[in-house]
Amino acid sequence: MRPLSLSTGVNPYAEGSCLASFGQTQVLCTASLEDKVPGWLDGAGKGWVTAEYAMLPRSTHTRTGREHREKGRAQEISRLIGRSLRMAVELPALAGHTIRLDCDVLVADGGTRCASICGGWVALALAMKKLGLAPSRQVAAISLGRIQGELRLDLCYAEDSTAELDLNLVLAPQGLVEVQGTGEDGLFSPEELAALVRTGLEAGQEIFAAQIAAVEKA
Question: Taking Cα atoms as reference points, which of 95, 85, 87, 108 lies closest to residue 44?
């Protein structure tokens, strides 16, 4: 796995913030605490956790246009982050509150959605602390793949762009939250999938430890 860093307190205004770095990839994650819930949750006795993901124009090798509205890929990743981080929270405990995560990619060198989830959990935990609460479980994510028949962990952009198999795992200490996998160039076997999942679960332990250390240090 590439060098991992989870730095807190990077935004003095947000209720929780974390700069998540995996190698060259950097994602700024902020958590904003709102004293309201979506209209469809009025009277339900629950809170909500949602997320928005975006890439800054020069986060990539060449400049891309600024995103004024969520497009297909960004919207899909936003929903993944939101789904994943809701698994970290007992929503009734957040009753009357929404925590909104903003995950802005500063430098994109592969694994940005996974970095968003890892840093987003830290920002979420810090925002919940303001309410005297804590997440009910940890959630992290890691990318994996296969390149020229070799299984790899935490792919950078150059590796990801040539991978025959691309896999994203969302993890909790107790098991898997979500699995996204695609055979980019041919099939992959159940045995390869099982090997990648085992590798991802092992790597997850390092990420979980880094998350706890970041929250305790904040």
Answer: 95
Please compute the mean of the pLDDT values over residues 6-23 and round it to a whole number: 98
Cα 146 from Cα 181, distance rounded (Å): 11
Give the burial string for 139-155 (b: 16+ CB within 10 Å, else e).
Answer: bbbbbbbbeeeeebbbb
Task: Give the DSSP H/E element, type plus range, for residue 48.
Answer: strand 48-55
Q: How many domains does the chain contain in total?
A: 1
Q: 117-142: per-residue pLDDT in tens?
A: 999 999 999 999 999 999 999 999 99
Average pLDDT, the chain: 95
Q: Where residue 10 sits, what CATH number does that domain have?
A: 3.30.230.70
| Residue range(s) defining the domain that contains residue 71 | 4-217
Three-state DSSP class for residue 24:
coil
Check whether 70 has a pLDDT greater than 70.
no
Report CA Rg, the chain.
17
